[in-house]
Structure formats: C-alpha cells, structure tokens
Design brief:
This protein is α/β, with parallel strands linked by helices. 40% of the residues lie in helices and 18% in strands. It has helices spanning 3-8, 22-35, 46-49, 52-58, 78-95, 106-115, 139-158, 224-235, 251-254, 256-264, 278-287, 302-310, 320-329, 339-346, 362-370, and strands spanning 11-14, 40-44, 66-69, 100-103, 125-129, 161-166, 176-177, 180-184, 210-215, 239-244, 268-272, 290-295, 314-318, 332-335. The strands form two sheets. It has an eight-stranded mixed β-sheet with strand order 3-2-1-4-5-6-8-7, with helices on both faces. The protein has a six-stranded parallel β-sheet with strand order 11-10-9-12-13-14, with helices on both faces. β9, α8 (224-235) and β10 (239-244) form a beta-alpha-beta unit.
C-alpha cells in the first residue's frame, strides 16, 4: 500500500473505546482527511457516537463524517473484547472493499487478528499500537512484549501499516521509536489569553495552599483516593486538590472515605465534575501548582503532555511508562504507587520558573499516521 494510494482511500476508524482522549485522535484524523476531500467514518459503540465529547471536538464537521454502530464493545473485557474488534474489522473490510480500516487498539488487536489472518486484508489495514514495546524486568511483562513484537513484525510482513504511539515529543520531520515507525501523541494547548479563562467553579478560590490537579477523564486508573491520602500524609492543611473533568460513575463512592479524611484533616477539595472544553482543561493544568499522575496501568497520558507544554510540574507515580517519560522530558518527579512515597514527592524543592515546551500537536499526529 503506497502512501499516495492510502491518501485517496476513504478511512474507517475502529474505536471501541471512546473515553479519554480517543475522540481527540479521531477528530484530528477527520480534520486532516476532510480537508483533503477524503471520506472518513467512525466505527464505535452507540455511546461513542452519541458522546458529547465527540460532538464537542468535531463541531460543524460532524455532519460530514460517516458513523457505524459496532455495538457495546466497551462493556466487554479480555478475549471477548478482542474477539469483537476482530469480527468488526473482518465485517467492515468485507462491506467496504474500497476503504482502509484503522484500529487504534493495536496492542490487544494484533495477536488475535493474526489468528484470523486468512479473513483479514492486511494491505488495507492500519494499526496504531498504543504502548510501544520497551525493556522490562518482570517475566510476565517480557513475555507480553515478546508476543507484541512478534505480532507487529508478522502483521508488517503481511502488508499492514503498523505504527506505535510515541509520548509527547517536539515536532520532527519524521518519527521513529527504536525500530518502529511512530506517531506523536498530540498535545494541543490554548494560547496565553485563553489560559486565563478558568472554569467558573474556580472563581474566588484563595491562593493560600499548594494546589494539586487530578485532571481529565477520572477513572480508577488515576487513583484519586491515593492522591488524596498522599496529600493528607503530606499535611492536608497546606494542600488543595482540584479534580476537573468528567469523573466516572462510582468513583466518588469508591473514594468517599479518603475524601472525608482529607477534608477532616484540613484539606480543600475543589471539584469540576463535567466534560471540559479543551481551553478549560488547559487553563486547569496551568492553574494548579502541580499535576499528579498516579496511574496503576501503563499507557499514554494526554495530561502529561499538556503539563509539559504549559510548564506545569508533574508528580508521577506507578506506571513505569510515566517514569520513563517524566525523566525523558525533565518535567517532574516519579514515585512508587504508595501514599507515603507520593506524599514525599508532593513537597517541591527550590521553586523553579515554569518552562513550557513546544510539542507536536494534532496536525502532526494526523500527518505522521496518514502520510508519514
């Protein structure tokens, strides 16, 4: 599949997981393709097709994209989830022989797809691997990465266009991560004037403590309860925690005890529990004294990129990928995923001037994935 041919073909993006920044990825691809007169279709669940996030990101372009309901794939887990995605791809390729298909959940998809290799047209398949293989110490992780690498290599030999997502990075003319062609995780931030337009819920908040941010789509992966516990250990009466973004159902119930303990110890919890416009989210990242990323699973973090681009210090914990990226970007500190260790990292050393870093954005992401 040549680049010139791929540019002319309509693209169907299979995105079973519509939460977090997945709709941002699709919007970037749609803008790029529509501007070049190429058709683009989103294949996702009904919840994804009806999500306010998608409507917000697409704006007026929403009427120009195709939409395919693939059923509630996001409610499945494990092998059932992967099997559903494989069936969807096989069906879409059969029904749309003139289109390419892009799967963004490549980590889970590729090994299962190879088991159905005879039913897939690999030359019309694009795959984005969200978590690049990297050196590991644990045996289980080593085995998982070995399977991933073997799957990526075989899919490439069969004709698929396989890329890996590269965490926040400055703009380059071409992108590679080790031996693999890569795509920059897009980081778009508001201009200086918009950064002053914080959500109205933040109006009148006293600047008498150190503010920590747990921002974006807040799920159990972000360990809000652990962040609150760490802030309490560090001296709650000197800290405020801003939770801004859509909080998953059940999270407040799960965190109820730590919220009460943080409040009783003199901490200040400020909540903006709703879908934020990009400019509002950026303003929150710039407003806090530090962004806390306490992740219990590996994977990209759009909030990390925004913090780096805006010069906001990062306190990361848990995921080894966060440790690698914080060290690479020089953007903050990392700690094990335990409240006492995070607490020790919450107190900054000597104050430093914020130094924003220009990073690759949505246009660079789309160009690298579709034309690179």
């Amino acid at each position: 599949m040549t680049v010139a041919t791929a540019r002319r073909r309509p693209l169907i993006v299979v995105e079973p997981l519509h939460q977090g920044h997945r709709m941002m990825y699709f919007a970037a691809l749609a803008e790029h393709l529509l501007a070049r007169g190429v058709g683009v279709t989103l294949a996702t669940s009904r919840a994804g097709l009806e999500s306010p996030d998608l409507a917000l990101r697409l704006g007026g372009a929403g009427a120009r994209i195709g939409r395919i309901d693939i059923g509630p794939a996001e409610t499945l887990s494990g092998t059932a989830f992967v099997a559903r995605v494989v069936r969807v791809v096989v069906d879409l390729q059969a029904r749309h022989p003139d289109s390419d298909v892009l799967v963004t959940e490549g980590d889970k998809f590729l090994p299962a797809a190879l088991a159905a290799a005879g039913r897939i047209d690999w030359r019309r398949l694009r795959v984005l691997v969200m978590r690049a293989p990297r050196p590991r110490r644990r045996v289980r992780a080593l085995v998982q990465d070995a399977v991933k690498v073997a799957s990526m290599e075989l899919a490439t030999r069969l004709g698929a266009d396989v890329r890996v997502l590269e965490q926040a990075t400055p703009v380059r003319t071409s992108y590679r991560r080790g031996r693999w062609r890569s795509v920059p995780d897009p980081v778009d931030v508001a201009d200086l004037a918009e950064l002053t337009r914080v959500p109205p819920e933040l109006g009148g908040v006293a600047d008498d403590r150190r503010w920590l941010g747990v921002l974006g789509h807040v799920s159990p992966r972000k360990n809000l309860d652990l962040v609150l516990e760490a802030a309490r250990f560090a001296g709650a009466d000197g800290f405020g925690v801003l939770v801004a973004g859509r909080v998953e159902p059940g999270e407040w119930e799960r965190c109820a005890d730590t919220v009460a303990a943080f409040d009783a110890a003199g901490g200040h919890l400020l909540v903006v529990d709703r879908l934020l416009a990009d400019a509002e989210l950026d303003a929150c990242v710039a407003w806090v004294d530090a962004v806390v990323l306490a992740h219990s699973s590996e994977g990209p973090s759009g909030i990390l990129g925004k913090a780096v681009a805006l010069g906001t210090p990062v306190v990361a914990a848990g995921a080894q990928s966060l440790r690698d990226e914080v060290e690479r970007l020089g953007s903050g500190t990392w700690a094990p995923l335990r409240a006492p260790d995070i607490a020790a990292a919450l107190h900054p050393g000597d104050p430093t001037e914020r130094r924003p870093v220009a990073l690759a954005g949505s246009a660079d992401f789309a160009r690298a994935l579709l034309e690179g």
